[in-house]
Amino acid sequence: MTANSHNYSKILLAWYDQNGRDLPWRNTRDPYKIWLSEIILQQTRVDQGMAYYFAFTDQFKTVKDLANAPQEAVLKTWQGLGYYSRARNLHATAQEIAFNRNGEFPKSAKELKELKGVGPYTSAAIASIAFGEVIPVVDGNVYRWITRLFGIELPIDQKDGQKAVQEIVEAIIPHDRPADFNQAMMDFGATLCSQKKPNCEACPFKQYCIATENQLTDILPIKAKKTKVQTVYLNYFVLEHKKQIIMKQRPDSGIWAGLNDFPLIESDQKIEETQLIDQAEAKFIFSEGKLLSVSPQMKHLLSHRKLLAQFYWIQLHTPPEYLPEDHYWCAIEDLDKKPLPKLIENYWKTR
Ligand code: SF4
Questions:
Q1: pTM greater than the 0.90 cutoff
Q2: How far is the CA of 61 from the centre of ligand 1 (A)?
């Protein structure tokens, strides 16, 4: 079976015309809005990303507004989406477009790929949707659909598997509707040919699908490497003195870069409470305090880490003589104005 033998793009577009999702960024060709939606959706589900898309387009109506906003405002609007390097890249790219490119986005995928935070997938999506370039997008949804439909048993996290899928989508993308075709592939993989329960009965490709014919839907697509999940204990200290607490700005790289949390002792095993408080006294240089509360353990999953967090609220009799680097005092009522990781925000709401 060759890629062209059943006119796949026609079938897919007919399905899309009936079943495509009506999403706000599909009613525009404004590259700014399309770029925003693509960055928001990079590691986020559509239903979750929608509110963020509206928040960004309401608050920063043009790329210049976004470029001129303080980074803290951008991070605050992004709060809860995770992967904060995306927000910082978003801001940097807005500045590049607004200040160095006269507010104009480049028009080809090749040039778009040079922008910070814009990889092969995002550049192809923007170029096809905003500028009509005939270039396919390939994301997890597309890998899943194509490997199943064509029965590709090569791992999609390795070059051979990626090349096989890429060649097929390049062969079937239609020249008259590349944007619709790309959005159709995303929708198809996200709804019909989904990870857990593909709806093969309702699928317009069922008579051609090699995975269905050979009962391979559960094992395709194949990945060579399984991600190992590491457990990390986050022991947070809410150190309070006279209605102020000590906060910490996280470094510019790594998880939750640039966001704010509390003094922290990280460990790969659970540490007993008394031992933990001894360690905290030594690390954060306080000698007397009263333990007011210990939160229940809170679980937070990242792509390859399981975080188990507990919060120890200690009222200090005397403040530390000095604070470690990047730590600062914050009035309790001002804490939720800071850009916070979701975990901290959840703790603060339920404390
Ligand atoms: S028949 Fe099932 S597995 Fe094959 S493409 Fe359709 S939904 Fe996916």
A1: no
A2: 40
